[in-house]
Amino acid sequence: MATTADIRNGLCIELNNDIFRVIDFSKFQVGRGSGKVWTKLKSSTSGKVIEHTFQSGHTINEVRVERRKFQYLYKEDGGFALMNQETFDQISIGDDMIDNGQFLKEGDLVDVLYHSANDSILSVEIPQTVVLQITYTEPGLRGDTATNTLKPATVETGAEVRVPLFCDQGDLIKIDTSTGEYMERVKK
Length: 188
Prior knowledge:
Blueprint: E1 2-3, E2 12-15, E3 18-29, E4 35-43, E5 49-55, E6 59-62, E7 65-76, E8 79-84, E9 90-94, E10 109-115, E11 120-125, E12 129-137, E13 150-155, E14 160-164, E15 172-176, E16 181-186
């Protein structure tokens, strides 16, 4: 058993006969009352995101999870093919199991979260940042670096991101996979 003091991002808990992963949380206190912990939770079965508030000190049921490294092989109809790095077993998972899967490139490593009790897949976590090459974007004009104007660009995985005007076709860029936003240009 854990308490609300143990809540952190990525923690898996059992709530209302379902397993949820903590996406975001915030602790606050209102006036003279007891403190509260606001959480944003994602269901491992339905993929729904809910908000839930706990009283400080409330006990929660922590679910034991195991992380296993898998390699992304290819996109298939309605899902992704992954290979276990230790046993070389291949599995197929649905699109709903991976957030922002459009940023995955063949060969990337992902973490698969397994429920330790029944060995079922809870979710798949992709790396926080990825480096991808721009395959198409409108050419930028020389000297367009003073403003924060963004233009659309297509990267090698087919995903579309907004990049600054100075980025050109063929450039390598770093992307934050949680938000899908451009972070910086990477040297070749």
